Amino acid sequence: MADSTKTVFAKSKLVGRIKQFFIQIGELSYFAGRFFKEIFTAPFEFKELLRQCYQMGNRSLVLVCMTGFIIGLVLTLQSRPTMIQFGAVSMMPNMVGISIVREIGPVITALICAGRIASGIGAELGSMKVTEQIDAMEVSGTNPFKYLVVTRILATTLMIPILVVFGDLIALFGSALVENLKGQVSFQLYFNTVFDALSFGDLVPATIKSFFFGFVIGLVGCFKGFNSKKGTAGVGIAANTAVVMASLLLFVVDFIAVFISDIFYEL
Fold first, then answer.
1. Where are the alpha helices (DSSP H) in 86-199?
2. Under a CB-based contact definition with an 8 Å cutoff, are residues 64 and 163 in contact?
3. Which of 10, 48, 84, 130 could form a disulfide with 151 if both were Cys (CB 3.0 to 4.6 A apart)?
4. d(CA 87, CA 250)
5. Nearest residue to 121 (alpha-carbon basis) of 38, 36, 73, 59
6. What Rg value do the Cα atoms of the chain yield, rounded?
7. Helices 92-99, 151-183: crossing angle, 10 deg rounding
8. pLDDT value of residue 216
9. Contact assessment for residue 70 and residue 174, using Cβ atoms and an 8 Å cutoff
10. What is the DSSP letter of 43?
11. Where are the domains of the chain?
């Protein structure tokens, strides 16, 4: 009897979690639809948009560059012995360049920004929600969704691709540094080889999906913060769940982007 009761309880709990998952997906879709509706209606908060772009881009640049530099170093140091074993060490710049530009650079940069930006947005908007600052904006006649949400989502959508470019360049510099020290390959030769290996089809998909990465980071961070509940404890929950949900959605978006790009490569 006790076992059957536990089984029923476990099933009901599982059904509740699945139901809550689909409810949250629906709420997130509605939130995204509201964003696309508000973005084309006046007034346009250009000053706040520029401020958010500066805050997100400038404060994330050092972290992204440091991460990119370490990725370039580690990827080259780990790959070099294997490439030497197969007699393909001359292909190192090609391999590292294509790997970083097409996949590693955008994904790692987006994950770093999800941890920093999405959590920051979730905590900031969550604290404004629980302290009733958002309600005060509505009472005063200001549209809090346009001022707080639209500007932040646009800022992340615009700034993540720029951060990806910086991260890729610094990662390639780190790789070139290893090749220069271990293989006596000049920086000019290294970068000439990398740019010769890269094609238009490598740059465009990576750039396009970087915009979607930025959109997902801003959307999830704003969604979690704007709908924060349970008092001050909800601020921490909003920041934490924003990072988790944004990271998972980044992998989903990346899979879809890679799947679509592979279809075009086969045509």
1. 92-99, 105-113, 119-130, 133-139, 144, 151-183, 187-197
2. yes
3. 48
4. 36
5. 59
6. 22
7. 170
8. 94
9. yes
10. -
11. 1-38, 43-266
Nearest to 233 by CA among 145, 135, 149, 123: 123
**Which two three-digit tokens encode residue 221?**
């961070």
- Give the closest residue to 121 by CA, choosing from 214, 195, 9: 214
Alpha helices in 2-45 (DSSP H): 2-38
The candidate with the shortest Cα–Cα distance to 222, out of 154, 159, 164, is 154
Residue type, 198: L
Question: For the chain, how are helix, strand and coil distributed in percent, rounded to 5?
Answer: 90, 0, 10
For residue 144, cis peptide bond before it (omega within 30 degrees of 0):
no
Tell me what pLDDT residue 227 has. 84
For 102-124, write each residue's pLDDT tens digit: 889 999 999 999 988 998 888 88
Q: For the chain, which residues score pLDDT lower than 70?
A: 1-11, 264-267
pLDDT recorded at residue 24: 81
- Both tokens of 47, joined, read 């000053």
pLDDT at 8: 59
**Number of neighbours of residue 30 by Cβ within 10 angstroms:** 11
Please give the Cα distance from 222 to 181 (Å, whole number). 45
Q: The pTM is what? A: 0.88
- Joined together, the tokens standing for residue 258 give 């890679």
At 87, give phi and psi (nearest 5°): 70, 30
Task: Give the CA distances from residue 143 to residues 51, 105, 146, 224, in Å, rounded to whole numbers and listed in that order.
Answer: 18, 36, 6, 18
